[in-house]
């Protein structure tokens, strides 16, 4: 390049290209989810964002009763939400040809779960620091384990996952 900037190495993606790709994922996901809401005759506003290295899409109910009706899309313990996230990722993959790590939240379920799991990870780290013994947590989904691992790392300890799905769990280890 003649302006003194260095071009990304062949096969790599610049930050602006990565951001544009993630924004495109969000737009594809939003279109897919908008159609789903129309088919299901549900009201919800769609919010798109990029968090770290992944697209994030949220469906929020603003109208009275909308949050409650969106709970059907969350399901028990987020089971329906997980399935919708996978379907949305497949829709993005179909359009882009690239694997998506898009994160979907509906009615604030994941945000609330993230706060709860962060507290769980911090408490487990505290218990390990006090006892010096590893703490094994209940089996969790990949999303839940990631949040706990991040909270444990922020507390200055390390953790690892053990077991096979669906019984995979986080183990918090002493320093």
From TrEMBL:
Name the residue ranges with Basic and acidic residues bias: 159-168
Q: Where is the R3H domain?
A: 111-175
SUPFAM superfamilies, A to Z: R3H domain
Keywords, in A-Z order: DNA-binding
Region (Disordered) residue spans? 154-175
GO MF, one example: DNA binding
**Where would one find coiled-coil regions in this protein?**
none
- Does the record's keyword annotation contain Hydrolase? no
InterPro entries xrefs = Jag_KH, KH_dom-like_a/b, KhpB, R3H_dom, R3H_dom_sf, R3H_KhpB
Q: Which PANTHER family match?
A: PROTEIN JAG (PTHR35800), RNA-BINDING PROTEIN KHPB (PTHR35800:SF1)
Instruction: Report the protein name in the record.
Output: Single-stranded DNA-binding protein
State the species of origin.
Streptacidiphilus fuscans
Recall the taxonomic lineage recorded for the source organism. Answer: Bacteria, Bacillati, Actinomycetota, Actinomycetes, Kitasatosporales
